[in-house]
């Protein structure tokens, strides 16, 4: 059934791709942005009117790093719950990682996930596929077939492709198939048992540490292969100042590298692990305060292209156990936008920076048609109330899992509604 056209009016439209930030109305029809016009310029006719008074109107937010646990661990999350949590967090689209059970390394599985995602409601699903068969880092998967099946990116996320010759071929082949490869940059032999950042806190708690050099060495090797091949690479969840410095230098050199960090690295440190709180056990680990400051600077100056959640749901069975046995990871789909809003205020950054890091840049890197609200773009819109004060309660999360390090935190600002493909997929119940 064709959707009724929607007018989003009275809002503040923020679209860095068009260089626009100001009052404007938006007409959405046939799944596209049909028109952008001055306030009141689009006649209501029989269209659905969404009053965005006091709201920011952003190109649909895109989270390019989530774990939806489907197939294999649906007790933690599945496509329906994960995509619902994404929409409630303000995301119109997410890129799901392939480290499921079985891993997504075959075209048939990509095809079935994409088809199920289209029926799941909530945010759009984009599915990534493994760089190597079984995510074992030895043999490349069939990139061409994966692309034709609908894969949106390639990654062995959860593991680094340690064999340099394999990764070199992966960069070349991914480029031929026009798929962005994503690297989980952690050298696996220096500290394989590291549970938290190696430093004063790991010593105090008597836990095996993971030094920053685990990430630094992997990024150094990855960048060397980008230099060798000249082909693009995206570095996932950067957590260290030293890793970020390498990326900054590589960009200055002109290498085609991009990177993301997750909100928890911009807010938390290893000190927050406190007395063995497993909700703060994350991989890569929460780092030192100096790393957090460097990442904030990297976001402010654009070295960090993208903010992505690394949403990693785990049930209480995997988290409410001895710290050493607890699974790594935290959910993040519903806190990423409020945290980024807080960061804008702390760093005195304009809202367009948020639209870049959470929409325009992921769209550009993944070569998606979205990331902008220019006429003809997909009708994916995130409406944000930048003022609304609230306390985040993980018990109310739409995710199946409860492993958030931000439970009980006070916030100012969150998503008010999400429009995907011209359809209001989620709106805050109080609106
Ligand atoms: Zn990862």
SSE inventory with pairings:
Blueprint: E1 6-15, E2 20-29, E3 32-37, E4 48-51, E5 56-59, E6 61-66, H1 79-88, E7 91-96, H2 107-119, E8 124-129, H3 143-149, E9 153-155, H4 164-176, E10 181-183, E11 196-197, H5 200-205, E12 209-210, H6 213-229, E13 233-235, H7 241-253, E14 257-261, H8 263-267, H9 289-301, E15 306-307, H10 316-319, H11 336-347, H12 351-365, E16 381-391, E17 410-420, E18 423-427
Parallel strand pairs: 1-4, 1-5, 6-7, 7-8, 8-9, 9-10, 10-13, 11-12, 13-14, 14-15
Antiparallel strand pairs: 1-2, 2-3, 5-16, 16-17, 17-18
The structure holds zinc ion.
Please identify the top-level CATH class of the largest domain. Answer: Alpha Beta
| N-to-C CA distance | 25 Å
Count of structural domains: 2
Number of helices: 12
* Most strands sheet: 8 strands, mixed
Count of β-strands:
18
The topology string of helices and strands comes to EEEEEEHEHEHEHEEHEHEHEHHEHHHEEE
Helical residues, percent: 25-40%
């Amino acid at each position: 059934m064709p959707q009724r056209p929607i007018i989003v009016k009275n809002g503040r439209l923020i679209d860095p791709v068009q260089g626009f930030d100001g009052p404007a109305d938006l007409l959405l029809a046939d799944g596209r942005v049909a028109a952008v016009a001055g306030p009141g310029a689009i006649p209501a006719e029989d269209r659905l009117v969404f009053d965005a008074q006091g709201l920011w109107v952003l190109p649909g937010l895109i989270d390019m790093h989530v774990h939806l646990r489907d197939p294999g661990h649906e007790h933690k999350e599945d496509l329906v719950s994960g995509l619902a949590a994404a929409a409630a967090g303000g995301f119109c689209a997410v890129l799901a990682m392939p480290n499921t059970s079985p891993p997504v390394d075959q075209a048939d599985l990509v095809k079935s996930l994409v088809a199920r995602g289209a029926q799941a409601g909530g945010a759009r699903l984009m599915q990534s596929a493994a760089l190597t068969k079984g995510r074992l880092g030895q043999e490349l998967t069939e990139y061409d077939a994966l692309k034709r099946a609908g894969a949106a990116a390639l990654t062995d996320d959860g593991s680094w492709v340690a064999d340099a010759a394999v990764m070199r071929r992966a960069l070349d082949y991914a480029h031929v198939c026009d798929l962005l490869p994503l690297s989980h940059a952690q050298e696996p032999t220096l500290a394989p048992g590291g549970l938290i950042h190696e430093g004063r806190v790991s010593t105090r708690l008597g836990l095996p540490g993971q030094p920053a050099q685990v990430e630094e060495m992997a990024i150094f090797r990855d960048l060397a292969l980008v230099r060798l091949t000249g082909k693009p690479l995206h570095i996932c969840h950067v957590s260290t100042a030293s890793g970020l410095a390498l990326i900054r230098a590589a960009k200055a050199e002109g290498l085609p590298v991009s990177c993301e960090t997750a909100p928890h690295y911009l807010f938390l440190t290893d000190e927050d692990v406190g007395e063995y709180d497993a909700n703060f056990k994350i991989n890569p680990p929460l780092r030192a305060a100096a790393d957090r400051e460097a990442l904030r600077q990297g976001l402010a100056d654009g070295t960090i292209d993208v903010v992505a959640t690394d949403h990693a749901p785990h049930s209480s069975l995997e988290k409410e156990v001895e710290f050493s046995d607890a699974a790594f990871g935290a959910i993040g789909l519903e806190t990423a936008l409020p945290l980024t809003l807080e960061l804008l205020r702390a760093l005195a950054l304009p809202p367009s920076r948020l639209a870049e890091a959470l929409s325009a840049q992921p769209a550009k890197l993944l070569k998606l048609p979205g990331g902008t609200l220019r006429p003809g773009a997909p009708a994916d819109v995130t409406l944000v109330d930048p003022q609304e004060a609230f306390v985040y309660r993980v018990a109310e999360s739409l995710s199946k899992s409860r492993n958030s390090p931000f439970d009980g935190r006070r916030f100012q600002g969150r998503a008010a509604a999400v429009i995907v493909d011209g359809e209001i997929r989620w709106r805050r119940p109080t609106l």
